[in-house]
Amino acid sequence: MTTAQQLNTQFGIKDQLSFREDASGLIVADIHNAQATASLCLQGAHLMTWQPKSQAVPVVWLSRDAKLAQGKSIRGGAPVCWPWFGAHATEASFPGHGYARTVPWRVIASGTEPNGATRLTLRLEESDKTRAQWPHASQLDLTVTIGEMLRMELTTENTGTTDFVIGEALHTYLHISDIGAVRVTGLDGCEYWDKVGGSVLKEQAGAISFASETDRVYINTTATCVIEDDKLKRRIHITKSGSLSTVVWTPWIEKANKMGDMGQSDGWREMVCVESVNAIENVVTVAAGTAHSLVVEYHAELM
């Protein structure tokens, strides 16, 4: 396994990007540049935090009780769900949301953008275990660009001779003041599968507000979403391409308490997931010899 010291030698950027080994034994990349700070765990290529210098509090939320552990997902940040979203279609023993978020990735490139942002590219490492769950010739890369804006590009390349179908998501947790005091705009008129209401197809009317558990898969939409947060006096813009589904999720108190790592008794109140997804009828066929990219950009502004 490549050590943090080796990564610093090959990919570190002075005064911008460095690597360290966490107490768990996992390696974390730390980004500190003139525009923002961020951290990313190489296991799962899991962006854990992002805070532009213009913001008094983080934009990407990480649970106070988040734990880094070999082979385990991290509560918060931006988990990579791939090559399926939700439960596997036929194998109940396979992990929900795929295996990408719990397996090793390796750094393949780093650099600085002309505007001063920091760029880091990682590639999923295949193994006998991953191939047993996904027996298709493929390559998965994630490029994260950290600056005043956060940009994430997840690219699936079909390196084989037959087409395959993927479901995917950047399952991003966004930091908010209080779940009962924010609203999400941009999805008015969109159809969605209400996963709390027994997978019933409904239509959104107006902005989304929250008073109970919410788990919705909005379909056939490329819309930009905005989290409007009056208490923090800011808006978080989520702009995407290569994605036709958007998931909006909050566990609320009962489900959050069962999870055990949402941040003591009230951590769930300070987050909402607005996820850029391809799922259900919007899964993606990647033809042999082609590639598909899901790109999301996040930007926070004061109201």
First and last CA, distance = 46 Å
Q: Which oligomerization state do the chains in this entry correspond to?
A: single chain
List the secondary-structure elements in sequence, H or E: HEEEEEEEHEEEEEEEEEEEEEHEEE
CATH fold name: Beta-galactosidase, Chain A, domain 5
Q: What fraction, in percent, of the residue positions are helical?
A: under 10%
The fraction of residues in strands falls at 35-45%
The DSSP helix count reads 3
Uncertain runs are none
- Please outline the major beta sheet: 9 strands, antiparallel
Instruction: Please give the CATH architecture.
Output: Distorted Sandwich
Rounded mean pLDDT score: 96
Strand sequence of the main sheet, in spatial order?
6-7-8-9-23-19-18-13-16
Query: Number of folding domains?
Result: 1
Using only CA atoms, what is the Rg? 18 Å
**Can you identify the CATH class?**
Mainly Beta
Shape: globular
Key phrases:
303 residues; nine-stranded antiparallel β-sheet; Beta-galactosidase, Chain A, domain 5
Q: Can you give a write-up of this model?
A:
The protein has helices spanning 4-11, 128-133, 252-259, and strands at 17-21, 27-32, 36-41, 46-52, 80-81, 105-112, 118-124, 138-146, 150-158, 164-166, 168-170, 173-175, 182-185, 191-194, 200-203, 208-209, 214-218, 225-229, 234-241, 245-250, 271-278, 284-286, 291-302. With 303 residues, it is mainly beta. It has a single domain (4-302), classed as Beta-galactosidase, Chain A, domain 5 (Distorted Sandwich). The protein has a nine-stranded antiparallel β-sheet, with no helix packed on it.
